[in-house]
Design goal:
Layout: H1 5-10, H2 33-40, E1 48-54, E2 56-57, E3 69-70, H3 76-92, E4 100-108, H4 116-129, E5 131-132, E6 139-144, H5 151-159, E7 164-170, H6 174-179, H7 186-198, E8 203-210, H8 217-230, E9 234-239, H9 261-277, E10 281-284, E11 287-289, H10 294-300, E12 305-307, E13 310-312, E14 318-322, E15 327-330, E16 333-337, H11 341-349, E17 355-360, H12 363-378, E18 380-382, H13 383-390, H14 394-397, H15 399-410, E19 414-419, E20 422-427, H16 435-440
Parallel strand pairs: 1-4, 1-14, 2-3, 4-5, 4-6, 6-7, 7-8, 8-9
Antiparallel strand pairs: 9-11, 10-11, 12-13, 15-16, 16-17, 18-20, 19-20
């Protein structure tokens, strides 16, 4: 990847992260639930990917923009697990129980907010309604707050089949941690990593954030050094988007404590250089992985995918999601649950699915989905393959989009190669960092009414 400051300045845009296409702002609350359920009832033999959203957090992290409920009342998990069990029962009536669950993810909130007893109950319910694979080929993961985990709980999770964990690190600098209200010393994270390794966890991801209050180049370089010493298989490096008008907790972060825009860019540039020098592959967007990791291998093999959990190696799965705000993706049919716990509870208690809104993709959406998701995952697009799958002539179909791509072609962000009958659009090393800008060209739904984060 080539860092080009002039291009970054030129394409200083805000845009979607494309964990789906169309993206969540297009989901319609007025859509017919009957139409969505009718689509959900369509038979499929695709493997399943399950997602469970656990919204509770015992601590308020000031930077966080997730759907969460901050409480110290751990018994709130009891009712919630019961609701998840009932939602699973309702959804299982529409699914073939023999379909393998190849991917499972628990997000939040803080999934490890749940007690060991509740975790065991939740897994019992999952196993009752779904065919969990537990032969070592599964990709079962959970997000972990180091302050909300014990060795005993981690051991239970591995016994249930969890073989990947994602640890919210953010920054090891004590002053930064105090400013964002997330104090977790290096020793705490190091102990968690050691425990995970001893229990056979095969993949550990660290979440880092740049642009937080009081961050400096020297301070974050020290964090990166400590991260490398712990040797996680994957690293996610997120841009902090300061939107206090949307997320009330962020009002506790003062503007004058945030790094200036030029420092923030320097933090990103330094991080990319440091991590790649340490041997990590830049997967794309904000993800890094060791060359031996499945993400890096899948990208080299042209099999990398992207969904609501980020980059994934599991192509061709139906994503079925449970809990407040959770989004399912059934081959372009998107269904999102209520984001409010009381509305979610009310629906489930009435024996109804907690559908708040959704979207049914048409042919054009599917064409654009393939283009955007392939570019953002593989950094190249086989135009001929798109034409054959969707029965279109690519450059006629996307004539307006190709006009918009012309400046990016001139700027060396993309190349168009033709070899015989095969045409390929390639994102260059100079354009990889700006992949979201390239994908935005093909997004027919993009408008200025939705406020997105900066692409850099």
């Amino acid at each position: 990847m080539i860092w080009d400051s002039s291009l970054i300045s030129k394409y200083d845009l805000s845009g979607p992260r494309y964990t789906s296409y169309p993206t969540a702002p297009q989901f319609d609350p007025a859509i017919s639930k009957i139409a969505l359920i009718d689509k959900m009832l369509m038979p499929s033999d695709a493997p399943l990917s399950l997602y469970f959203h656990i919204p509770f957090c015992a601590h308020l992290c000031y930077y966080c923009a997730c759907n969460k409920i901050v409480t110290k009342q751990y018994d709130k998990g009891v009712e919630y697990v019961e609701l998840l069990g009932e939602e699973m029962r309702l959804r299982s009536l529409m699914l073939d129980h023999t379909r393998d669950v190849t991917q499972l993810h628990f997000g939040g909130g803080t999934p490890t907010f749940l007690t060991e007893e509740l975790i065991a109950t939740l897994f019992e319910n999952i196993k009752q309604y779904f065919n969990l694979v537990n032969d070592g080929t599964q990709d079962y993961s959970i997000e972990i707050d180091p302050r909300e985990i014990t060795y005993s709980k981690l051991k239970l999770l591995t016994e249930m089949g969890i073989n990947r964990i994602s640890i919210g690190v953010q920054d090891f600098d004590a002053k930064v941690q105090e400013a964002i209200h997330r104090v977790q010393p290096l020793t705490m994270v190091s102990e968690l990593v050691d425990n995970a390794r001893s229990l056979g966890i095969k993949s550990i991801n660290f979440d880092l954030i740049y642009g937080l209050p009081y961050q400096s180049l020297e301070g974050f370089k020290e964090t990166l050094y400590q991260v490398i010493s712990l040797s996680p298989e994957r690293i996610s490096l997120f841009n902090y988007a300061h939107l206090p008008e949307r997320f009330r907790a962020q009002k506790r972060i003062l503007d004058n404590t945030l790094p200036l825009p030029n420092i923030k860019l320097d933090l990103l540039k330094m991080s990319i250089e440091y991590l790649t020098a340490a041997g990590y592959d830049y997967i794309g967007m904000d993800h890094f992985a060791k060359p031996s990791d499945e993400l890096a291998l899948a990208q080299k093999q042209g099999k990398l995918q992207r969904n609501f959990q980020g980059y994934t190696t599991h192509a061709g799965t139906d994503l079925v999601a449970f809990g407040v705000s959770a989004i399912s993706d059934l081959n372009g049919i998107y269904i999102q649950n209520y984001t409010d716990l009381s509305a979610y509870r009310s629906s489930i208690e009435k024996g109804q699915l907690a559908i708040a809104k959704g979207y049914i993709s048409d042919h054009d959406d599917r064409v654009r989905h393939q283009v955007i998701m392939t570019l953002i995952s593989q950094f190249k697009l086989d135009v001929t393959e798109v034409e054959e799958r969707h029965k279109i002539h690519f450059f006629d179909y996307f004539s307006q989009e190709m006009d918009k791509l012309s400046p990016m072609l001139e700027d060396g962000m993309i190349e168009i190669d033709q070899c015989g009958m095969q045409t390929t659009i390639k994102v260059t090393e100079r354009g990889r960092l700006l992949i979201r800008c390239i994908c935005m060209v093909f997004d027919k739904h993009l408008n200025n009414t939705v406020k997105y984060s900066k692409v850099i």
